Amino acid sequence: MREKTRATVRELAREVVAAELAEGAAGAMRQVAEEAARDAVRGGNERLVAQQVRRQLADDGEFRPRLLAEAVETAARASQRAVEASKLDFMAFARARAEQVFAETARPVVEIHAGQRPPVSFTEVSHRVLPDLLVVLAARCHALLVGPAGTGKSTLAQQAASALGLEFHALSLGPTTPMSKIFGYYDAHGTYHATPFRRAFEHGGLMLLDELDSGHPGLLSELNQALSLGVCAFADDMVTAHPDFRVVATANTYGTGPDRQYTGRQALDAATLDRFTLLDVPVDERLEEQLTLAHAPTEAVAARAVLKKVQWLRSTAERKRLPVMFSPRASIESAKLLEAGASLEQVMEWRVLRGVSAAHRSALGEDEGNNDGPPA
Ligand SMILES: Nc1ncnc2c1ncn2[C@@H]1O[C@H](COP(=O)(O)OP(=O)(O)OP(=O)(O)O)[C@@H](O)[C@H]1O
Ligand SMILES: [Mg+2]
């Protein structure tokens, strides 16, 4: 009896131990399975998880493990799908973004072949008129670039000089620009002072005569001889033009005198105009976009909004024949202001709409507090 009792007790004890062991093992397995499930959700690796779970639960009959394994597999598959879908989404997004950035920042190579000269390659961001200007200059003609304010005329002259390897000189003309700025002068000690024009004329180089239609007619007619005959009477001497002497002049008008927008312009003499090959330089909106975005690398969304607005205002003003100017300079300077921390509203007021009269604002749909009409 005592023996039996002892045996029963022993058996009972073994059962207790076995039960405890079984419970411990089940707990450990549950933990492993849960960990595997977490890994699955985290990593989205269905195959690895399923394998791991199967390995851990292989010997455990019917019970929860099968359900658990199925749940883990379902979770793993779902997370795998989510990861793959987001990967695809991300790839499509990344590709679109990369293409956009490339289009905005890639520098097209302009290659220009003119006559027998070796081709010239140019990779700076440039106005679409640059190849035409290079052809004109390669043909040894002087160029007059005509276009509204801020379209990039002066920059074109600078870029043409660099593309052709010519030294660049510049002079901005105004109604009071004296002859001495072009032809030089003797000071009170009898020393002759040369000018950029003189250096370009004598030694070769590209001379930018900015704002030609603001220059004094008397000064311009003095220039005519230098531009066509190739000889020029400077204050100290008669000089023959260097074969690489070129003039690029810029103007906001075709030399027809003042208009409603460019009120201070002179009418250009036919003899002066005749010395230039005339190229139109309209707004190049692609260049405007490239430059605007380049100046606001961390404010691209706001910069795009300003750009869109400026271009919309420009086309509306043109359509309604309003004498107001929304130049690419407004977009570019706005981008700089945004990058420096100004708000969109400040930039619109300070740089885009400043100086536009109430009547013109109203015609443009830009009354204060009006949020209709133009895109933001
Ligand atoms: N190709 C370019 N690369 C970099 N910046 C440019 C380029 N073209 C124009 N810009 C910038 O755009 C602005 C206007 O250009 P630019 O002064 O050449 O215009 P413009 O036609 O001569 O204007 P205006 O008629 O008022 O004299 C400037 O800030 C200039 O630096
Ligand atoms: Mg200029």
TrEMBL record:
Residues 139-289 form the AAA+ ATPase domain. SMART domains: AAA. InterPro entries: AAA+_ATPase (IPR003593), ATPase_dyneun-rel_AAA (IPR011704), CbbQ/NirQ/NorQ/GpvN (IPR050764), P-loop_NTPase (IPR027417). It comes from the Bacteria. This is AAA family ATPase. It comes from Streptomyces chisholmiae.
